Every structure is written in C-alpha cells, then in structure tokens.
C-alpha cells in the first residue's frame, strides 16, 4: 500500500497551497470534496483481491469493480502493480525451493525436464529463442509473469532484474486487457457479460495465435 500512500500524499500536497488561499467556507467544502473523492480502503482491497487471481483472471472484474467504486485509473494501476509485487514475494521462494528439490529427487527431475520442455515450446511461440530483456518481457506478456520469472532465472537474472522483466510484461498485458474491458463494456453496458467475453478471449486468442504459428512453421498456412 506504500504506492497508494505516496499517491494520496502528493495529491494532498498539491491542493494544500490552493486551500490556504481560499476563504474558510470554500476551504471547508473543498476539503470535504477532496476527502470524499478518495477511494475507501475497502474498495481498494476488494479490487486487489481480484487482481491477485493468477494468470490475470481477475483483471476484467477488477477493472470494472474499480470503475464502479470510483477508483481513478492511476490507483487501479498501482493496485495491479502491488499484486505483482505480492506475487514476486510469494512465488520467488517457491521457485527457488523447487529448483533445489528437483535436483535431488529422481522423479521430480524427470517431471521438471518435461515441464521445461513444454514451457520452452510455449515460450518459443511468444519470443522465439531469445533470452534478452525484450524477449523476457514478451514471455511475461504472452504467457504469464511466473513463466517470465522462471525464464529470467534460467537466463541467469537475479531477483530484482528477473521480476522487473516479468512485471514489465505483465503490466503491458494488464493495460491491454483493462482498455479492452472498459471499451467493450461501454458498448455492452453489462459487466457480467463483458467479463465473460474478455475471459473467453484471454483463453481462446492465445490458442488461436499458437495454432496459426504452428501452421506457418509447418508450411500449411
């Protein structure tokens, strides 16, 4: 919540000088309107709970809920960034532990090899065979931030750099889904229908892109 505190602190400092120049009556009403315009902690927490759903599944509902609660788009974006930071704190120890255990247990080693092979195929469709910063960002954008972080770890990047690439890609993904959701809902005017349509697109579009790339690689498209 540090980002939200900094955002609101800057907002208060910006308006403080204006309030000092106002008459007492106007200052009272301006202060009251400023306080009422700030989102409640409960609304922010409700949106954050949706954003922590893995693989971006809560983005459409979270964006629409934030709009309904009156949250400004910078606050909504900071909430999603906070969910990514929470993911980094939770997932990093698990990733390190799995890497340690898989090297010592035979069947886990085989399972890990199969998982790496499947992940490598998915990554190849998104970013080719590259492992540079742009490729890692595209992996997080096209697959998910956890895969992006795992790919960054395999490329030798540490905690800060690896998660920076993963979060950068995931924030781009958030922007695309958020804008799509808001634009679609402006035409449909039904949040439930909008959420289901966007979720279906999030599932089907990557599969369609993968199928097209497979046909192109096989020379059949």
Q: What are the defining features of this structure?
A:
221 residues; mainly alpha; 2 domains; 10 helices; 83% helix; globular
Summarize the structure in short.
This protein has 221 residues and is mainly α. It contains 10 helices and no strands.
Structure explained in plain terms:
The chain is mainly alpha-helical and 221 residues long. The chain folds into two domains: 1-38; 41-217, no CATH class. The protein has ten helices and no strands. It has helices at residues 2-20, 24-37, 41-51, 59-68, 73-102, 106-127, 133-142, 145-154, 159-188, 191-217. Helix 8 (145-154) runs antiparallel to helix 9 and helix 9 crosses helix 10 (191-217). The model is unreliable at 32-36 (pLDDT under 50).
Blueprint of the fold:
Layout: H1 2-20, H2 24-37, H3 41-51, H4 59-68, H5 73-102, H6 106-127, H7 133-142, H8 145-154, H9 159-188, H10 191-217
Shape: globular
List the total number of helices. 10
- Kindly estimate the percentage of residues that lie in beta strands according to DSSP: under 5%
Quaternary organisation of the protein chains: single chain
**Secondary-structure element pattern, one letter each:** HHHHHHHHHH
Which class do the helix and strand fractions yield?
mainly alpha
Kindly state the percentage of residues in helix: over 70%
Number of DSSP strands? 0
Main β-sheet description? none
Distance between the termini: 49 Å
Radius of gyration: 22 Å
Mean pLDDT: 77
* Low-confidence segments: 32-36
């Amino acid at each position: 919540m540090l980002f939200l505190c900094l955002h609101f602190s800057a907002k208060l400092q910006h308006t403080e000088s204006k309030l000092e120049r106002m008459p007492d009556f106007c200052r009272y009403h301006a202060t009251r309107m400023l306080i009422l315009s700030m989102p409640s902690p409960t609304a922010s927490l409700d949106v954050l709970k949706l954003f922590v759903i893995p693989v971006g599944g809560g983005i459409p509902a979270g964006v629409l809920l934030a709009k309904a609660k009156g949250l400004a788009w910078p606050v909504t974006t900071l909430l999603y960034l906070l969910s990514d930071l929470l993911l980094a704190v939770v997932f990093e120890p698990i990733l390190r532990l799995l890497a340690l255990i898989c090297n010592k247990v035979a069947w886990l080693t085989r399972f890990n090899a199969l998982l790496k092979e499947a992940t490598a195929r998915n990554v190849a469709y998104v970013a080719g065979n590259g492992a540079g910063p742009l490729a890692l960002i595209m992996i997080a954008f096209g697959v998910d931030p956890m895969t992006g972080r795992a790919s960054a770890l395999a490329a030798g990047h540490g905690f800060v750099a690896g998660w920076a690439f993963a979060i950068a890609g995931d924030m781009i993904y958030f922007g695309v889904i958020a804008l799509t959701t808001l634009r679609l809902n402006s035409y449909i005017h039904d949040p439930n229908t909008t959420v289901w349509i966007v979720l279906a697109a999030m599932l089907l579009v990557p599969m369609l892109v993968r199928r097209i790339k497979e046909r192109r690689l096989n020379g059949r498209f």
